[in-house]
UniProtKB/TrEMBL annotation:
SUPFAM superfamilies in UniProt: ATPase domain of HSP90 chaperone/DNA topoisomerase II/histidine kinase (SSF55874), cAMP-binding domain-like (SSF51206), Homodimeric domain of signal transducing histidine kinase (SSF47384)
Tree of life domain: Bacteria
Domain named Histidine kinase: residues: 297-471
Family annotation (Pfam families): cNMP_binding, HATPase_c
Protein name: histidine kinase
Top EC class for this record: transferase
GO MF annotations in UniProt: kinase activity
Keywords noted in UniProt: Kinase, Transferase
Organism: Marivirga lumbricoides
Length: 471
């Protein structure tokens, strides 16, 4: 960048008068601006400012253009493009002191800069000029707030999507795996069926075998202790080898899953021919294996169904945008389902202390679910690093209100931070992990419902207390 005064003051004044922004501003005020400003010349690719640089000039683009870029996770994202005739940098009454993004030139650019040291003189003597610049500042704040709120929503959506993708991937993978094993298993059945069909058993003995099988399927009693289970497998394996049964080790593992004991097999061996015991046990084992694989598929399918239903209720996607009476507990539980991946990966223990007698509350459902998401997401982050991370969710009826408390055992919120947590754009998270709009959004939604939200915090116990009117 170079500073220069090669462009004449009269030419600068003409340029300013041509810009739509300054229509209606008296010529003498623009002449004062041109006289007290300096020209900055940039080449394509030059950086006008970077994060942390002081915002000390009102910048008016005389020629060219530059991009405003935000930096998140070491990646640049375009916020806006500033072109000829537009304003950037410092504006009257703005409290911004330092740049939070990057200004990068995209073509040869000339910028007129007025140092903020002239702010008082401008406010005192040049009303119309100040009015234009203040209006520009309010427009900038409105646009930036909209951008940041959209960023906050996209960040929240990203977190939920990542968690849901992980949560759905596990049961989906289990279904694919179990279905593949089941198909392979069933393909071997005709060959094994030949051995079983040759066996001649009485009707009474057949009933005993099938009753034993169904008892084990309906009431499996495998040892809970890994050591006891291993001992059982070894005992069964030795017994099966003594009975000259093929694949004794594999068979023992499967029978142990359903709590078969040595006495069950010995009793069976005493009632059938020695050459038939192997075929009978393999037939029973095959049925147990099929039962287990079908059970795994059913359990995984139910998990997917639960997650899909949680998303449906969470987003309220099959309902209108009007208020409706809802069970607060259902919304909280669905939010926990959606955040389950983050809860599990952080090792956070969730305790539900719900008063199941509280009445339904009239709410904008999808909005109040954003409240649970933001508060729970923050609470999970807050307990990270704790020896025994935990969150308590408590509900109570307080007169005409329902009280919801979200309590975490994190390190707490210092007083100087607690005083600012509801401010727009205030965040203690590192760049890329927070926009500072999460708690502001929470407060706005709660107040929209004519409720209140308070923070009480000390090391080891932080409580967000919400009160929502029942009607």
């Amino acid at each position: 960048m170079k500073k220069s005064n090669t462009m004449k003051k009269e030419e600068i004044l003409v340029r300013l008068q041509e810009f739509e922004l300054f229509k209606g501003v008296p010529s003498e005020q623009l002449e004062w601006f041109a006289e007290h400003s300096e020209l900055h010349f940039y080449e394509e690719g030059d950086t006008i400012f970077k994060p942390g640089d002081a915002i000390d000039e009102i910048l008016i683009i005389i020629e060219g253009a530059f991009r405003l870029l935000s930096i998140s996770n070491q990646q640049e994202r375009e916020i806006a493009t500033k072109i000829k005739g537009e304003v950037s940098g410092f504006l009257p009454f703005s409290r911004a002191k330092n740049a939070s993004g990057v200004g990068r030139v995209i073509e040869k650019t000339i910028i007129l800069g007025l140092n903020r040291s002239y702010e008082r003189e401008m406010l005192r003597d040049h009303y119309e000029l100040c009015q234009v610049l203040v209006h520009e500042m309010t427009s900038r704040v409105r646009e930036f707030t909209g951008f940041q709120k959209q960023t906050e929503k996209m960040a929240a959506l990203g977190k939920l999507s990542a968690g849901l993708a992980h949560e759905l991937n596990n049961p989906a993978s289990a279904i694919v795996r179990s279905a593949g094993e089941l198909k392979k298993h069933l393909s071997l059945q005709p060959k094994k069926f030949k051995k079983v069909i040759k066996i001649k058993l009485t009707e009474e003995l057949t009933d005993r075998i099938t009753d034993l099988l169904f008892d084990k399927i309906q009431s499996p009693s495998a040892p809970k202790s890994l050591m006891k289970r291993k001992d059982l497998e070894d005992d069964l394996s030795f017994l099966l080898e003594d009975l000259q049964v093929d694949d004794a080790m594999e068979l023992a593992e499967n029978l142990a899953d359903y709590g078969f004991e040595e006495k069950d097999i010995q009793s069976l061996a005493e009632q059938v021919k020695p050459e038939d015991i192997g075929a009978i046990l393999h037939w029973m084992s095959d049925n147990l294996a099929i039962e287990k694989m079908v059970g795994d598929i059913q359990e995984s399918s139910e998990r997917i169904s639960t997650l899909v239903n949680s998303v449906k209720v969470y987003t309220h996607m099959d309902q209108g945008q009007e208020k409706s009476e809802v069970d607060l507990h259902e919304g909280i539980r669905n939010t926990l389902n959606i955040l389950n991946h983050k809860i599990k990966s952080s090792g956070t223990k969730i305790k539900l202390d719900f008063d199941e007698e509280i009445p339904a509350v009239c709410l904008f459902v999808s909005e109040i679910n954003q409240v649970w998401t933001n508060l729970l997401d923050n609470a999970i982050d807050a307990v990270a690093g704790s020896d025994d991370p935990g969150i308590i969710l408590r509900t109570r009826q307080k007169g005409k209100d329902v009280q919801v408390c979200i309590i975490d055992n994190g390190k707490g919120v210092p007083d100087e931070i607690a005083a600012r947590i509801w401010e727009p754009f205030f965040t203690t998270k590192e760049m890329g992990k927070g926009t500072g709009l999460g708690l502001e959004l929470v407060k706005d939604i709660v107040e929209k419902h004519h409720g209140t939200i308070k923070l009480k915090s000390q090391p080891g116990s932080t409580t967000f207390e919400l009160c929502l009117p029942i009607s």
